[in-house]
């Protein structure tokens, strides 16, 4: 029930507003990933929070960026981002993908940071995806010490109720919006950051 409501709200957002939000997402995401050398991200569809400014900002500073390649069925593969001119739509309804050599699904295990798409996030990190389960199959392959962020608009943060959870759903510990980025209360990353701030 939530998915069509959120998709409709995203489609109603004016194009210029989406572009401004994309720049804000990029600023916060670059700050969030810090000095990470290898980031797994995604190419946004037209109504999703735009990742194009972020992909260029990461490339400009020399960060290697891994992007999804959607193989047959639910095949999970990746390829390196080399620039916007390299992205192509390979099938109707799919986001643009890099045209370079395809890497296996396990390649995401080399990433220091993973930025995942979402339609909504609740206060405990439950992620509402598009419904295909692609990222729920990818996230278990991420290194335990890698940081995982979901990218949503501010109004897609669900504070007053918990989203429904299935067995295969993988929570995310951190969020990026156009106005901020933050670690969710109680996440392992937040606890680790608190330990680093506490004097010995």
From TrEMBL:
Cofactor(s) this protein requires: Mg(2+)
The entry's keywords: ATP-binding, Ligase, Magnesium, Metal-binding, Nucleotide-binding
Coiled coil: none
Catalytic reactions on record: (6S)-5-formyl-5,6,7,8-tetrahydrofolate + ATP = (6R)-5,10-methenyltetrahydrofolate + ADP + phosphate
Database matches in InterPro entries: FTHF_cligase (IPR002698), FTHF_cligase-like_sf (IPR024185), NagB/RpiA_transferase-like (IPR037171)
Leading EC class: ligase
Known EC number: 6.3.3.2
GO MF terms held by the record: 5-formyltetrahydrofolate cyclo-ligase activity
Assigned protein family: Belongs to the 5-formyltetrahydrofolate cyclo-ligase family.
Name of the protein this chain belongs to: 5-formyltetrahydrofolate cyclo-ligase
Protein's organism: Georgenia alba
